[in-house]
Queue: 2 jobs
Job 1
Amino acid sequence: MLGSSFIEAEVATAVGMQRIVFSGDVGRYDAPLYNDPVPPPACDYLLCESTYGDRDHPVSRPLDELEAATKEAIARGGVMLVASFAIGRCQQLVYLLRTLMVAGRIPEVPVWIDSPMAVEATEVFSKHVAEHDFTEAHMQGVADSLAAPWVHMAKTASESKAINAHRGPGIVIASSGMMNGGRILHHLIQRLPDPATTVLVAGYQATGTRGRSLIDGARFLRIYGRDIPVRAGVRRVDALSGHADRQEIVRWLTGLPAPKKTALVHGEPSAARGMSHHIRTTLGWDTFLPEIGDTVELNG
């Protein structure tokens, strides 16, 4: 993803310089719009994410899955709400939707990007098309671009509120991605009670978030002290998960000399344990699960 990075630090110790690498979020291979993850440098200590460390992503076809979900939403007759991270996921969705519409695979319906940060990020992405992978567009005979006349940018509060007046099919992409804040909440209040609405869940939803509650079948969603009835359809597209699964993490690490220690972080306990076990059994590395307040001694 444009602008993504991992952290590399060198620390002077009694036994010489020790290199520490923190993975950050490791992306997926062959993901729409994104180039493949860059291999990490050799290091003495590694902190590695483990969001999907206890599972493998199913074989997926992002264009096909998004096409099916969007056609279902249009057939319901209402708006498709997409809770999205403002940087990366939003632009990926716009790219895929544009590709499908230009290729004639779905009707041209209005698309709103309703997030000031997402609007600004989309402008940056649009200025750096050489940094993206447009394989899906090329396969559909579509030009490299994120721009389209039916994509509307809602940067101000008044522009966001104006979307409420829209009736009929349309797509609103708004943050936050797990529905814990941001403008998506106002759209959920407005449209969740409407059976014509579709809520598309297109990313990881942590335990305890509104997004997780929706995909777990919640009949009401508590927003700003109100219990909003869920009459909308809820659709999940796993093909757009942004984090590498356990096999992709190992692929990313393959070729890296074994660090002295590898800490598994940024994952729920079961996922971190699963990733730790998978790295130990496939790569033979020394792994551990750090707790808050733990101290690790850097030595030779």
Job 2
Amino acid sequence: MTTLHITNGDCAISLLREAGIQGDFLPWRDILHMGPVPANYSLSALSDIRAAFISSLGWGELEQIKADFVERDYKLNQAREYAQIVFWFEHDLYDQLQILQLFDWLADNPKVASKSFLINPNKHITHHCVSEITSLYDSRKPVETMQLQLAQKAWQAYRLPNLDSWQQMTNQDTSALPHLREAIIRSLHELPASTSGCTQTETLILTLVASGINEKTLLFQQYCKCEKAPFHGDSGFYWYLQQMSNDQPALIDNLDDKLSLTEMGKLVLLGKQKWQRRYQAQHWLGGYCISK
């Protein structure tokens, strides 16, 4: 076997193949900024937790999702058989969390680490044209011990039941993974603000709906333009949007698939009211349950 390419999903793999990148491909499918990511679980045990969460969102049957995780983890363990492993990941929160998980595993597998390389641009891989992919591949750099040590520390901090260690990471040297600090800061903005009770994503949704965007597909497209480093996929974004209608008092009305602000939504957006929400579903950031 020659090269195993590990990246954030199927769209990136399609582009790599179109560009003529040779080898086997492993999409690391998981939305680690959503749902529980608790500490002190093995990769396979954590995968079971993640499968249960993803199934709870209605995104597939539990047994099939579990089987997909088993296949994914098996392929990762097969990395030992390859001459080279190349990690293709981006700068946004979604990808940075995946780097942490994978590099935590890599730190415990030094023989694999010794033949691993990282490609980590500050632009989404799928936003590159085909002709740029070869240059990206040529720019790959060996994974360094400092990167693995930082990833292990950050991955442990993210999964703790309180956010103290995760927040403290922003005051430490994270330059070994140059996009990590911004990703951590962005993740912390997914906590409810003390003034409005809304996260940054929820505040942006209120702002965009108030501006007249009343259809969810257009809303997601505009989110992607407004977010500095978009990390929500469409399904995850729509889940958060739905919670703004489900949680009481609701901030968003969705009548005949047309979005509008409720009276409470208008007051919250104007800063005249704090959203004292009653959660209908659990919200998490790593190992910390926001909705507890």
